[in-house]
Amino acid sequence: MTKPPPDLGTPTTFVLLRHGETPLTPQKRFSGSGGSDPTLSDAGRHQAERVATALAPRVPRTGRTGRSGLAGLAGLGTVEAVVSSPLARCRETAQPVAARLGLDVRIEDGLRETDFGAWEGLTFAEVRERHPDDLNAWLGSPAAEPTGGGESFEAVAQRVAEARDNLLAAHAGRTVLLVSHVTPIKTLVRLALGAPPESLFRMELSAASLSAVAYYADGNASVRLLNDTSALR
């Protein structure tokens, strides 16, 4: 007779929220941690409020069952903590969500976006025109840095993994909302899947989208949601 699977207990779940739009987002400009630190645009603030409204039914003190207004988040548990990148666009996105949930926002530096060096504020086409060799190297190797001493994807993955491990230890068995950026969120998904670094270029992550990863006691992880924008519709 086949033995039943082991009881791994309640997983620790990270609900991953990309920040709302900034003025640079629709222009598709590199916007990392080494640039101007833009705030949300009016559209971005509206997106943050929409996500906050969708997550509001998960507030524990309402006496409800913890179900979210988002069908994709059903079964992920009640959000018990909110953690944000230190950059302004994430803190602005996190604040209305945390207020609706009745929680404080904790800052985690490891969730900040990549430092894109001299590429900050430029479009992909502008970088290709001005720094073609550096761009090709960056696209071909996770160890390559952007022009001007920015961060490699390898370096970002190391600090994101360290932040992940610290948060898992601090919030074992709980559901935590992490408000971050494209590269850190894609990195968390990539690491959960055991996918190669080039998979970062094969994921779409919209502004104010939600993703989710569940982490189990045996060290395995499961991607539960990716790029869900239903809260914005």
Q: Can you walk me through this structure?
A:
It comes from Streptomyces aurantiacus. The chain has a single domain (12-232), classed as Phosphoglycerate mutase-like (Rossmann fold). It has helices at 42-55, 88-101, 124-130, 132-140, 153-170, 182-193; strands at residues 12-18, 79-84, 105-107, 175-180, 210-215, 221-228. The N and C termini lie far apart (49 Å). It is built from 6 helices and 6 strands. It has 233 residues and is α/β, with parallel strands linked by helices.
Instruction: Report how far the terminal alpha carbons are from each other.
Output: 49 Å
Helix content: 25-40%
CATH architecture verdict: 3-Layer(aba) Sandwich
Provide the β-strand percentage band. Answer: 15-25%
Strand order of the largest sheet: 3-2-4-1-5-6
Biggest sheet architecture: 6 strands, mixed
Low-confidence stretches: 58-65
CATH structural class: Alpha Beta
SSE order? EHEHEHHHEHEE
Total strands: the figure is 6
Give the count of structural domains: 1
Tell me the overall shape. Answer: globular
Oligomer: single chain
